[in-house]
Amino acid sequence: MKKTKKMDIIYEDKELLVINKPAGLLTIATEKEKNNTLYHQAREYIKKQNPNNKIFIVHRLDKDTSGIVLFAKSEKLKHMLQKNWNDYVFLREYIAIVEGRIDKNSGTIKSYLTEDKRLHTYETDSKHGKLAITNYEKLTSNKAYSLLKVTIETGRKNQIRVVFSSLNHPIIGDKKYGAIKNPIGRLGLHAIRLGICINDKKYLWTSKIPKAFNIMYEKELKMYEDNRR
Q1: CATH topology for the 1-83 domain
Q2: Residue 182, SS3?
Q3: Which of 18, 130, 140, 194 is disulfide-compatible with 10, CB 3.0–4.6 A?
């Protein structure tokens, strides 16, 4: 029997469980994969504490994106957060490595996204898609790659991946959306910070920068972390 890798728990209390998801792991089950998911690991973890415990997924990350995932320990809290997610969340911050040089130091990208029959997300117009707002700040760049801090104001499926692909700067390792380079052996996208406010109480969680990202940008990412403190 395959051993389950120990979860990287960032925060836990009576209501919430926050986990740093590794790249390559599904958040929730699909038709092809039922058990090798972050949800399954979280469920097994809380059941060991008490067989009557339950866990509920609040939001999700793509399989190949790493970073912060939030779970609720009650169905009531899950529904409350999901129903008005944009009202509760005040920060969704990512680190991204994209192909090519980004010229502007910062910017806001407004686009409209939808899905085709193959569940492939793409840009469209306001009549056929949902608004996606993506902000970015360039941390460093050269002719081959750019390191970005990205925050999103909306949570559309594959939002960051599609937006930068549409700008001809796909996330490294993202073959689905046109990337041809993969110098770190994984998708270059990590959900590093999440902030929510529940009943006037603010939570701000930070995850570890993946070791693979330091292969390219150890000094720059250390500076990013120092400036954030």
Answers
A1: Pseudouridine synthase (3.30.2350)
A2: coil
A3: 18
- What digits encode the pLDDT tens for the residues 149-160? 999 999 899 999
Sequence ranges of the domains in the chain: 1-83, 85-229
Active-site option among 8, 13, 62, 103? 62
What pLDDT band is residue 227 in, cutting at 50, 70 and 90?
confident
- Supply the pLDDT for residue 5: 62
| DSSP symbol at 74 | S
Helix (H) or strand (E) holding 215: helix 211-228
Q: Is 64 a residue of the active site?
A: no
What predicted TM-score, i.e. pTM, was given to this entire model?
0.93
Is it true that 1-83 and 85-229 share their CATH fold? Answer: yes
Domain 85-229 CATH (choose: 3.30.2350.10, 3.40.50.1440, 3.40.50.12280, 2.40.110.10): 3.30.2350.10
Do residues 57 and 27 lie in contact, with contact meaning Cβ atoms separated by under 8 Å?
yes
In contact, 88 and 197? CB cutoff 8 Å: yes
